[in-house]
Specification:
The complex is a heterotrimer of chains A (165), B (288) and C (788). Chain A is an alpha+beta fold. Chain A has 2 domains: 76 residues, Beta-grasp domain (Ubiquitin-like (UB roll)), CATH 3.10.20; 69 residues, Orthogonal Bundle (DNA polymerase, domain 1). Helix content of chain A is 33%, strand content 15%. Chain A is built from 6 helices and 5 strands; from the N terminus they run E-E-H-E-E-E-H-H-H-H-H. Chain A has a 5-stranded mixed beta sheet with strand order 2-1-5-3-4, sandwiched between helices. In chain A, helix 2 crosses helix 5. Chain A is globular. The termini of chain A are far apart. The relative contact order of chain A is 0.15. Chain B has 3 domains: 47 residues, Uridine Diphospho-n-acetylenolpyruvylglucosamine Reductase, domain 2, CATH 3.30.43; 109 residues, Uridine Diphospho-n-acetylenolpyruvylglucosamine Reductase, domain 3; 106 residues, 2-Layer Sandwich (Enolase-like, domain 1). Chain B is 35% helix and 27% strand. In chain B, a hairpin with a 6-residue loop joins strand 13 and strand 14. The N and C termini of chain B lie far apart (50 Å). With 788 residues, chain C is an alpha+beta fold. Chain C has 3 domains: 198 residues, Aldehyde Oxidoreductase, domain 3, CATH 3.90.1170; 237 residues, Aldehyde oxidase/xanthine dehydrogenase, molybdopterin binding domain (Aldehyde Oxidoreductase, domain 4); 142 residues, Aldehyde Oxidoreductase, domain 4 (2-Layer Sandwich). Helices cover 28% and strands 24% of the residues of chain C. In chain C, strand 19 and strand 20 form a beta hairpin. The radius of gyration of chain C is 27 Å and the shape is globular. Classes of the chains: A alpha+beta (165), B alpha+beta (288), C alpha+beta (788). At the A-C interface, helix 2, helix 3, helix 4 and helix 5 of A face helix 1 and helix 18 of C.
């Protein structure tokens, strides 16, 4: 017998949402199945890959490993909320400039990790950056180009904030 | 994930009372960084999930020069990693956190949750053990404190009873001229740990007044290497003595062979890691 | 080298916006109204007869729509190889017995994933275990358990190659001593060659399976329309053509009623080339129920039930003259194939053919067998056979050099083939940048100052590799259409698959260059089997050389048409015209010209409505009708080869045996870099992947069970582990490549692995005979050396 669904209030990409959900779902399920936000991906079931990374109350988390109910009252930012209108976020623009993605499956997760990281530490060293991006697996790029892309944003904030779209 | 009833707790009292009611039908959820994987794989299927993550009473960090540190069980790994207080007072903890899982996991995962999960390859237990930490357990019937060195019982098993919660981690203030260090070995930097060792060295007048060594991933539980500690205590420390202690620690370890390494190799690693950790601890003790 | 406007520029990828905004929809993201979710019950037995399957409880579960077993798919066989000699032998769902842990035994479709999973738990399978065999050399012995009986093609069933026009009918195959594939290639006179050698060396390497570890797990969405009989598919693939063919063949749905829709594809690396049981099952269930069905594999099933790379034991015997001239080589391969052939019959052949373009070896014998074992199947992975052979041969090259006191760089250069060489199968090296790759990588790495001089625990190593540029596979062609749009832009219809490697950008660069356009002026339609042309050339790295070239040829065709109409309009000769910025102008008088949109209008008005459509096609090896013989290696293989020389510098912790790769230099000959940003990405990717292969990647088994089927226990390189990587372009343009270009996606991985192996040897002098170079192996080796 199925247990009663529960109401949850959560703000996603700036929009307050009130949803009736099954309690046994993850934040990733909530985003994908209830809100149709399919940017965050699932590439493992062992809390290893980071493809599901979103920002929860300012922190990068693996949405596959956070129970949806734990997001009650929180603000969630996903890759879909990164661009503002027709203006890409500096990290998105840098990823394009540097060809920092290939297949793109893990890219949304990387962008969210990178955003949380730069919000907290706008001027990371390359070593700090590589360490802080360890939770995001990538098989295509060999990591080099997206580390360069993130460093570029960190080192040239003006260039990217001035950039149109 | 099988179905369960989700119960969000606002107070410690509420949590304790539900826990004594549901006992083994319930699982306690904190950050859930290990628990959710078990739930998703249907390796566990509790009827009730008691969520303590948002109980304000369990999230704090208090330091007193005499009493030492008291840290709520819900302190996240990332808080430990970034804490200026810990960087100053217990440097080894923020250092160790750098190699704990990933930023995302450290952001949501809690120290209490990690200890109760009791994965023998966990990184944070060995440094906490050499720091002589104790953990406070609470239930509807009362509370007790247990030295962390006696907390772990077996693979993924601790002394926590089914009606109990781990609520606090206590670390005594470090004596003067004390150094602590942690070393881990994995094939890749953030890879699965094959062996780990933490060492604490306390000096007095050039002699080793106290020493503690803890090992992980080389026994069913994080363990003290008591014989190795004895070799160091009361003596002037040098490379030769540390080497002896490292040999003793390797002999004390109780590793298994698995897909990642043989038991023999793990013993060899214990020698190397204890040596490196002890040397680093000694340097730090001298510098402090 | 000629300078081009668009070609050779690091233009941002055209798939960027979708990929950085999360808009890119992968198979995993496809949701259709009324969609059901399917799950597969996998065998827990390595080798067992299926006595009974009771699905009654599962069928009763509310929300379950269908439960199927091997009885429902009886007789349906698939395989990567389905030739007259080797009939496809893998059942869609296990029938009378299971042959590996992870094989499909039953499948469920239900209203949601939870219900489907619960239903799996309610299926009772009664097995009668049969003795199993896990080691290929044991499996070959008399008395070993026989995994397959005689493989008799069903009456009237044509093998794939017959469908594709090969005149020979499928024969039955009897795998004696579990041998399911064999190759035997020779030229010259090996015996004579070895008798003339001054020095002979014999080495054996064991190369394990590794996983492709694409970030996107495999999956399929199938939607069958019960009234029209059309089947719509969304798949994670490497080209829709082969999947569509096999689903059509197994389910007997006319291929024209089967459509693969465009999805983004989350990595492939060879591992998504063949059709899989789960794809056929999703389609089968959809047809049975008349509803859309989604089936996404969890990561553990990707490890246990799709495929891993090919495990090989490689024995190389080499005869050399005192001066370092190689005179003979004899290679013996044994592949631990798994329960079905996978791509092993192809790999055994490729092990020879991928290396044949490198060294000039006058007398050569290459033989190998693929042996059935009770393990999961194995498949091509980025370089398909090259890395297994390169590890064995390139390490042996260093050891021979050491034994004979030769400089390993000079020793290699001395034996390299020459540009223009014709191989024994008549493939010609029209381009050959390898000597340059070696020289430039050696120079950039400062090899001379480092080799043997870095001190204990530090080393540097070199290895070289080569790669095909496409090879024949059904439909043996790549087709393309470029049409002119009203505003003078063009739309390109491309058949090849984008799974990260970049053709959606590079193809547009070729077309833009040819037509004087900007890349933004080229709209692209790709990945849809209804809209796009035949193409299956991402297979064996034919993406650039064959598929992209087909697009260039289409653009050339359109160019000629546009110039012809413009010539008429301008009353000039077509040769005197050129095109730029959506207009044709007179070379002598660039101000005079007509815009593309005017040309289009004119053509429609004056030429019976001709809307200017360019057509292009290209065949991997134009001179041959079919694929070459796999077992004898006869016939042409490919029209061009790419080359890599990699140098790696490492440090090894003497106390633990752990290797850290400090720096990798990749000298690569890709003919011409069409897009340097993408080219760098491909080479960095291979440098890092190769590091994983060399040092720690290994799919491990215990009694047939995959024990590290997850990303905790199966580690792949992470951000912190990456070394410095220097990319060096040492391209030799190929006369048949588009603007001279060749492949860049697969060649380098093998050279990187070899270079790390050789660097670790240089640092430790420990001779290892198996990959990966796990720290424990090196540690043991160092201990042994210390004892001596």
């Amino acid at each position: 017998m199925e247990l009663a669904k529960k109401w949850i209030k959560v703000t996603v990409n700036g929009e307050p949402r009130e949803l009736l959900i099954k309690p046994n779902i993850t934040l990733l399920d909530l985003l994908r199945d209830y809100l149709g936000l399919t940017g965050a991906k699932m590439a493992c079931i062992s809390n290893s890959c980071g493809a599901c990374t979103v920002i929860l109350d300012g922190m990068a988390v693996k949405s596959c490993s956070v129970l949806a109910m734990q997001a009650e009252g929180s603000e969630v930012l996903t890759v879909e909320g990164l661009a503002e209108g027709d203006k890409l976020h500096p990290l998105q623009q840098a990823f394009i400039n540097h060809a920092a993605f290939q297949c793109g499956f893990c890219t949304p997760g990387k962008l969210m990790s990178a955003k949380a990281l730069l919000d907290e530490n706008p001027q990371p060293t390359e070593e700090e950056l590589k360490r802080d991006m360890e939770g995001n697996l990538c098989r295509c790029t060999g990591y080099k180009k997206y580390i360069e892309a993130i460093m570029d944003v960190a080192q040239h904030p003006v260039k990217y904030s001035a950039k149109e779209g | 994930m099988r179905e369960f009833e989700y119960l969000r707790m606002n107070t410690l009292q509420e949590a304790c009372s539900l826990l004594s009611e549901y006992k083994d039908e319930a699982k306690v959820l904190a950050g859930g960084q290990s628990l959710l994987t078990l739930l998703k794989l249907n390796m566990i299927s509790p009827s009730y999930l008691i969520d303590i993550k948002f109980i304000p009473e369990l999230n704090y960090m208090d330091f007193d020069e005499k009493e030492g540190l008291k840290m709520g069980a819900l302190t996240t790994h990332r808080t430990v990693e970034k804490s200026p207080l810990l960087k100053e007072k217990f440097t080894v903890l923020p250092e160790t956190e750098l190699v704990v899982a990933s930023v995302q996991t450290r952001n949501w995962g809690t120290i209490g949750g990690t200890l109760v999960h009791a994965d023998p390859i966990g990184d944070i237990a060995p440094p906490l053990i050499v720091l002589d930490s104790r953990v406070k357990l609470i239930s509807a019937d009362g509370e007790r404190t247990v030295p962390l060195a006696e907390f772990f019982v077996d693979f993924f098993m601790t002394v926590v009873e089914e009606n109990e919660l781990l609520c606090e981690i206590q670390i005594p203030a470090l004596p003067a001229h004390t150094g602590v260090a942690y070393q881990k070995f994995s094939t890749i930097e953030a890879g699965i740990k094959i062996a780990g060792a933490a060492a604490m060295v306390s000096l007095d007048d050039g002699l080793c007044k106290d020493a503690k060594i803890a090992l992980s991933a080389v026994a069913p539980v994080p363990m003290r290497a008591l014989k190795a500690e004895e070799i160091l205590k009361g003596k002037p420390l040098d490379d030769r003595l540390i080497e002896q202690a490292a040999q003793a620690a390797a002999a004390e370890a109780d590793p298994v062979t698995d897909m990642h390494a043989t038991d023999e190799y793990r013993r060899e690693l214990v020698k190397v890691l204890v040596k490196r950790a002890a040397k680093m601890a000694l340097e730090r003790a001298r510098a402090s | 080298m000629a300078e081009y406007r668009v070609v050779g520029k690091g233009i941002p990828r055209k798939d960027g916006i979708e990929k950085v905004t999360g808009e890119a929809k992968y198979t995993f993201d496809v949701t259709l109204p009324g969609m059901l979710y399917a799950k597969i019950l996998r065998s827990v037995q390595a080798h067992a007869r299926i006595v009974n399957i009771d699905t009654s409880e599962a069928e009763k579960l509310p929300g379950v729509r269908a439960v199927i077993t091997g009885k429902d798919t009886q007789g349906m066989k698939f395989g990567f190889v389905d030739t007259p000699r080797y009939p496809a032998e893998q059942p869609v769902i296990a029938e009378e017995k299971v042959r590996f842990i992870g094989e499909s035994v039953a499948a469920v479709a239900a209203v949601d994933e939870d219900t489907a999973n619960k239903a799996l738990d309610l299926i009772e399978v009664e097995y009668e275990p049969i003795p199993a065999t896990f080691d290929p050399e044991e499996a070959m012995k008399e008395g070993a358990p026989q995994i397959h009986g005689e493989q008799v093609p069903a009456p009237g069933r044509k093998c794939a190659w017959q469908d594709w026009g090969v005149a020979r009918a499928a024969r039955s195959y009897n795998p004696v001593n579990n041998i399911g594939a064999a190759v035997n290639i020779s030229y010259g006179d090996s015996e004579k060659g070895f008798s003339e050698a001054d020095y002979i060396r014999d080495d054996t390497w064991v190369i394990p399976r590794t996983n492709h570890a694409c970030m996107e797990p495999h999956g399929a969405v199938a939607s069958y329309h019960p009234l029209t009989g059309h089947l719509d598919l969304w798949l994670s693939h490497m080209g829709f053509e082969l999947k569509r063919y096999w689903i059509s063949k197994t389910l007997e749905i006319p291929i024209s009623k089967l459509r693969v829709h465009k999805t983004f594809i989350g990595g492939a690396f060879g591992g998504k080339a063949q059709v899989f049981d789960h794809e056929i099952i999703a389609a089968f269930l959809s047809r049975k129920l008349g509803k859309p069905v989604k089936l996404i594999l969890p990561r553990d099933e990707v490890f246990t039930s799709t495929n891993n790379s090919i495990a090989l034991k490689v024995n190389v015997r080499k005869g050399v003259k005192k001066d370092g001239t190689i005179v003979a080589q004899h290679v013996k391969l044994i592949s631990d194939m798994g329960a079905y052939r996978g791509s092993v019959p192809v790999c055994l052949f490729l092990c020879h053919s991928m290396r044949d373009s490198i060294y000039n070896i006058p007398n050569l014998t290459h033989e190998g067998v693929g042996v059935y074992t009770n393990k999961s199947t194995t498949m091509a992975k980025r370089g398909h056979g090259s890395q297994q052979m390169t590890t064995a041969i390139e390490s042996q090259m260093d050891w021979i050099a050491e034994d004979l006191g030769l400089n390993p760089v000079e020793f290699r250069l001395k034996n390299l083939r020459k540009k223009g060489d014709v191989l024994a199968n008549r493939d010609t090296l029209n381009s050959f940048g390898l000597p340059d790759c070696v020289k430039k990588a050696v120079e950039a790495s400062n090899w001379k100052e480092k080799r043997g001089k870095l001190g204990p625990g530090h080393g540097i190593g070199l290895a070289v590799s080569s790669m095909f540029n496409g090879s024949g596979y059904w439909p043996f062609t790549a087709g393309s259409i470029v049409r002119m749009n009203h505003d003078g832009t063009v739309t390109l219809y491309m058949g090849q698959a984008e799974f990260g490697q970049g053709p959606t950008t590079t193809t547009c660069q070729l077309v833009a260059e040819e037509l004087g356009l900007e890349v933004e002026d080229v709209n692209l339609i790709d990945g849809d089997s209804e809209l796009c042309q035949f193409d299956y050339n991402n297979f064996l790295s034919g993406g650039m050389f064959v598929s992209c070239k087909a697009c260039l040829v289409a653009a050339q065709d359109l160019r000629q048409q546009v110039l012809k109409v413009a010539a008429e309009m301008l009353e000039e000769d077509a040769e005197d015209l050129n095109m730029l910025e959506r207009r044709v102008y007179i070379k002598e008088d660039p101000e005079e010209g007509v815009a593309f949109d005017e040309i289009l209008r004119y053509s429609i008005q004056k030429h019976g409505g001709d809307p200017l459509i360019g057509k292009g096609f290209c065949k991997p090896v134009p001179e041959i009708e079919f694929y070459p013989s796999l077992s004898k290696g006869s016939g042409r293989w490919t029209d061009a080869y790419s080359f890599t020389a990699a140098v790696a510098e490492v440090s090894v912790d003497a106390e633990t045996g752990r290797t850290k790769v400090e720096h990798i230099w990749v000298g690569d000959d890709c003919g011409r870099e069409i897009n340097p940003l993408i080219c760098e990405g491909q080479l960095q990717s291979q440098a890092v992947m190769g590091m994983g292969d060399a040092l720690f990647e290994d799919v491990m088994f215990s009694e047939g069970r995959t024990i590290n089927a997850n990303f905790v226990d199966y580690e792949i390189p992470r951000a912190f582990d990456i070394p410095e990587i220097t990319i060096i372009d040492a391209s030799d343009p190929d006369p048949n490549g588009p603007f001279g270009a060749k492949e860049i996606g697969e060649c380098a991985r093998a050279a990187v692995i070899g270079s790390i192996v050789n660097a670790v040897y240089d640092a430790t002098k420990v001779k290892v005979d198996s990959l990966p170079l796990h720290p424990e192996k090196i540690f043991r080796g160092l201990q042994e050396k210390a004892k001596v």
